[in-house]
Amino acid sequence: MRAVARSTRPRREGAGEAKSPAHVLLIDDHPVVLSGFRRVVEDLADDLDIGQIHEATDIVSGYRAFHKLRPDVVVADLSFQDRELSGLSLIRRMRALEPEVRILAFSMHDDPVVVSRALECGALGYALKDAPTFTLIEAFKTVQAGRGYLEHRLATSVAMLNMRGHGPTLGTLNARELQILSLLSKGKSYRVIADNLSVSYRTVISACSSMRQKLGVRTLAELIHVAVSRHKLDAGA
C-alpha cells in the first residue's frame, strides 16, 4: 500500500470552520491503471481542494487503509487477481463502516447486473476503465460532490434491467454465482466453468443448485434459459 499518513481531522466541519482538503483512496491491483487514475486526480487537486491521495493494491490493504485513514472519496476496482467481483464486498464493508464515504466503482465490467450490484453495495457512481479521460474526470467530480454518477448508456441498461424485473431477482446472487451464470449463458459446461474459475466441479454444481432456488427455476435447462435471456438483454437484444 502506498499512502502517506495524515493527521486526525474531524469528519464534518461546523459552521464557520474552514473545510479540510478532501482525502482520496485509490484501490486497484493494476499498477498502470492505478497510476493513470492518480494522475487524473492530481490534475483535479487544486480545482477540487484535494489533499492527500492514498493507494492500495489489494482487498486487505485497501480495507486497512480505509479503516485507518477514513478518506472522503474512494475509487475502487471490482476485480482483484483471481477473486472476480470481490470489490463488491469491499465496497459494502467500507460503506458499513463509514456511511458518508463517497465511492466510485471503477471497473472493466459493463454488465448492468454488476453495475446494479455495485450501487446496491454502496457505490455512489460507476465508471468504466476504457472510458475517455474527460468521462473519468466527470465521474470523479460528480461523486466527490456527493452526487450519483452513471454514464448514459450504463444508466439506460440498468433502468431497462430493473423495468424488466431482472434487478431484484438477479440481485440475490452473489459474485461467484453471477460469474457462473455469465459462463452458462455462453454455453460453457460445468467442467469448463470449474477450470475457468479455478474451483472444483462440485462447487459449480452447488452454485447452480443455489441459483435455481434463488431464481425460482427447477432445472438446469431453465437456469440456462435465464442466463441466455440475461445475456441477450445485456447485448441489447
From TrEMBL:
It comes from Methylobacterium brachythecii. Residues 166-231 form the HTH luxR-type domain. InterPro entries: CheY-like_superfamily, NreC/VraR/RcsB-like_REC, Sig_transdc_resp-reg_C-effctor, Sig_transdc_resp-reg_receiver, Tscrpt_reg_LuxR_C, WalR-like. Keywords: DNA-binding, Phosphoprotein. SUPFAM superfamilies: C-terminal effector domain of the bipartite response regulators, CheY-like. It comes from the Bacteria. One of its GO terms (biological process) is regulation of DNA-templated transcription. This is DNA-binding NarL/FixJ family response regulator. Residues 23-144 form the Response regulatory domain. PANTHER family: TWO-COMPONENT RESPONSE REGULATOR (PTHR43214). GO terms for molecular function: DNA binding. The modification 4-aspartylphosphate is found at D77.
